[in-house]
Amino acid sequence: MVMKSWNVLSWLKEAVIWHYSNIQYVRNETQLEREKWLIPKIIPFNRYMLMPCAALSQACVGTFYAWSGFNLPIEAQLYGRNGGVDRAVASNVFYVAIAFFSCSAAVTGPWLERNGPRKVLLVGATLFFFGNLLTALGVYVKLLPLIYFGYGVFGATGLGMSYVCPTSPLQRWFPDRRGVAACAAVCGYSLGAIVAPFAQKGLIGPLFHKTGEAYLGIELTFLILGSCYFVIMTTCAFVLRHPPPGYSVHSPTVKPAENIQPTRTVSRPLTSSSSASSISPILNTEFQAELPKEHSAPPMAETDYSEHFSMTSVGALTSLQYWIFYLTFMGAEMSSILVYSKIQSMVQTQLGRSPSDGATANAILGGCDLLGRLLLPLASDMIKGYKPLYALSLSCQLISLSCLPTVLEAKSFGGLLTCGGIIVFFYGGGFGMLAAFLSQQFGAKNVGPTNGVAVSVLAVIGIMGGLTFTAVYRSQQALYPNNPTHWYDLNFRWMLGPVSLALVICLFMPTDLRLRYLPKAEGELFRFRLPNGRLTRVTRWELTVLSTREEDEEWSAYLRSLPPIPGPAAHSTTRN
Questions:
Q1: Phi-psi region of 504 (alpha: psi -120 to 50; beta: other; left: phi over 0)
Q2: Which of 281, 374, 475, 531 has the lowest CB atom count within 10 Å?
Q3: CA proximity to 334, closest of 426, 249, 242, 263
Q4: Which secondary-structure segment (H or E) carries 332?
Q5: Alpha-carbon distance 11 to 378, whole Å?
Q6: What does the pLDDT average to over 357-367?
Q7: What is the DSSP letter of 64?
């Protein structure tokens, strides 16, 4: 029995390694010729066609964040009307769904790279449509497990698959505008959260959960919206595609990282002013942005070290730096997920406002989400860095979370929108920068797997954070039965802990080549950069700040110690 268990575990390990390491997309000449056209022999394909299709498909996926509009109507349909008080039951469907959403996104990344975005989006759209049908049936027969199974499992799995589809193609088609491409891939996500709340209220009936007065009801709402989403997503699937092998933008300086072939010529001794940007075209890191100007110098053309710093998808996913970022990203996205899941209920139960105000609040948060996805990637392109923006995100969220208990006690609609809007703005911005940051740190060819696994933070947030959030909410509800403004106080306070920890981790996150690859000194525990760019080592007994010259000399010695890389002949195969 032990031997059989060991064999099964060994097989699973090999299967996982194969899944994440086999990401080559092979197409024949007929397929490549067909993909030159949007409509064969009528409309040629242009890379800019991808952006509106990415936005539309992501808008359908983004309707996921309007789920809070279903909380009160579903509870009223299943358990009867109680004056519109949130029972904290239907919101658990959202937490289960977000877990399946993120897990499917994590698993789908490599499959997307092997099969292309069209097939993946078609499968995802079909699963989402089937999930909406099952949810409608569950509401009709008043069976909560069927709603969990329909929307929480099938629907969310399809959404997770669909979510990762535009990211990798856009990063490959737009190596010259990675921030804008990442923005286009995810900004549409927020459009769904803006439009869907009003569509839901308009179809269900705004007072359904209080009076039972319905327009079309919950069941037909899921059928109609699910059908619309299916048509839009399947149409977009036939536009998405990966670029052909050897693709490059018409620029002498821009080429996809995965298609750069390293060359080896006669080398010369390294000077202390060698720039990291001249060493690795694979990893276009934040090095120059974070270091003082004296580190920059004309690039060295004689020796190309890019092969030493390129990474496989398995290497990227198992690196310490990736998991440091994973924890940072989890903290940056946690509070918004929990606010999104309850915003319409908060407005109606805690503030005593109308259902229309709840839908408006959800839409305003969706607008803040959209602004974050638009503005922060553009800001990252301007400052040539991502780490400062993630640190800013966590700092602003800490302030907003601290203010929310006071805002609810004062029943301030504007205050809730301000604090919630700040949290959701940085949530959207975090996702907006995600693909570009991962492409910069681990290579564009690894965006699919690394982005998919990064999205799995939502599973942790949904299962651990969401269910904890619900349990604490119910305990406070029992403690203050006649004072709903305090039902969320303890939740907002415990969330300060993980967000604070993520901020500390973010400040020490290595994002340049030297922090990641420079050999450790004797007794070194960890290293970081001061605001002025100076590399700082922490040992057991002291803190050492290296001068610019000392750091450059160590880096030059490290590069001289690297073994020779294979010549161009060894890299003659072109991958896509």
A1: alpha
A2: 531
A3: 426
A4: helix 320-345
A5: 44
A6: 87
A7: G
Cα gap 124→104, rounded to integer Å:
10
At 535, is the secondary structure helix, strand, or coil? strand
What's the mean pLDDT in 278-282? 37
Cβ(446)–Cβ(455) below 8 Å: no
Find where tokens 């099952």 sit.
134
C-alpha of 440 from chain center: 15
Asked if 165 and 185 count as a contact pair (C-beta separation under 8 A), the reply is no
Residue entry with tokens 């490059």: 248
What stretches of 212-252 show up as alpha helix (H) in DSSP? 217-237
Contact 242, 171 (CB under 8 A): no
The answer to whether 353 touches 413, Cβ cutoff 8 Å, is yes
CB contact at 8 A, 502 and 327: yes
Measured between alpha carbons, how far is 412 from 414 in angstroms, rounded to an integer? Answer: 5
DSSP state of 40: T
Question: Roughly how many angstroms between the first and final C-alpha of the chain, as a whole number?
Answer: 43
Q: What is the pLDDT of residues 436-451, one digit of tens each?
A: 788 878 877 777 778 7
Mean pLDDT of the chain: 79
Pick from 132, 116, 274, 251: nearest CA to 203: 132
Strand ranges, E, within 273-408 = none
pLDDT digits (tens, 9 = 90+) for 175-215: 777 667 766 666 777 788 888 888 888 888 877 766 667 67
Q: Which residue has the tokens 């979510």?
A: 163
DSSP 227-293: HHHHHHHHHHHTT--PPPTT---SSTT---GGGPPP-B----PPPTT--GGGT-SS---SHHHHS-G
Asked if residue 207 lies in contact with residue 83, where contact means CB atoms within 8 angstroms, the answer is: no
The region that residue 41 occupies, defined by phi over 0 for left and psi between -120 and 50 for alpha, beta otherwise, is left
Amino acid, res. 481: P
Strand partners, 524: 539
State the sign of the Cα–Cα–Cα–Cα dihedral 81, 84, 88, 92: positive
Calculate the dihedral angle through the C-alpha atoms of 94, 98, 100, 104, rounding to the nearest 10 degrees.
150
Lookup: tokens for 435? 């693909």
Residue with tokens 């010729």: 33
Nearest to 285 by CA among 386, 183, 169, 379: 386
Q: Give me the pLDDT at residue 304, please.
A: 53
